[in-house]
Amino acid sequence: MTAPVRPLSPQEARVLGVLFEKERTVPDSYPLSLNAIVLGANQKTSRSPLMEIGEGEAQAALDGLKARSLAVETSGGRVMRYAHNLPRALAIPAEAAAIVATLMLRGPQTPGELRVNTERLHRFADLSSLEAYLAELAARPAGALVVELPRAPGARERRWAQLLSDPPPETDLASVGRPADGGVDDDRFAALEARVERLERMVAALDPRDSG
Question: What is the CA radius of gyration of the chain?
């Protein structure tokens, strides 16, 4: 299977990340019940952005993942349980799947942040090992699963984002698949980021509480 034709919804990405994470952190409770998935999706730690997903939304997300072979339903006991199929469905190794899952759970991160945050899912020997997997995921023949974002003003390192779900606003889709030193104009990115900041200020000024 190649990458899903339609990007995963934020809820689908969160549920898929939770399934992968909990398989490794609470193996005795895996596969997960719907209630456990909701709790994992809505937890206040190790998540960005924070979400409030109800059981109906979680079930719809699971149905969408099952339709893409990214999750499976297992029987047994009184409660239906669910497991992920991330590495097999996307034909990537477990090490790479740990990176993708962490990006789905925590949002864009630098390689250094990723190495720390993937510790419980997979322990990379060193930073260069993790960066090698990032490069493979970005150059994946069936379609890139991650992209390196432009360096934010004042930031020392670039962050990486996953591409299974809708990319973050700062992602330049034209750069997907290019090497990190592909000659992209940083000044153009800075101008775009400044424009986004101006738009955000304009939206904030439209707060309905300020009217009437």
Answer: 18
| CATH class label, 92-200 | mainly alpha
Nearest to 124 by CA among 133, 83, 171: 133
Instruction: Check pLDDT > 50 for residue 179.
Output: no
- Rounded CA-CA distance 131/136 in Å is 9
φ and ψ at residue 20, rounded to 5 degrees: -65, -45
Q: Kindly list the domain boundaries of the chain, sorted by start residue.
A: 10-88, 92-200
Q: What is the pLDDT of residues 45-73, one digit of tens each?
A: 999 999 999 999 999 999 999 999 999 99
Report DSSP letters for 99-122, one per residue: HHHHHHHH-SB-HHHHHHHTTTT-
DSSP 8: B
Burial of 187 (0-12, 13-18, 19+ CB in 10 A): exposed
- Domain 10-88 classified CATH 3.20.20.70? no
Which residues is 162 bridged to in the sheet? 146
List, for residues 108-150, the tens digit of each pLDDT value. Answer: 999 999 999 999 999 999 999 999 999 999 999 999 999 999 9
Among the ranges given (57-66, 90-99, 189-198), the one the predictor scored with the smallest mean pLDDT: 189-198
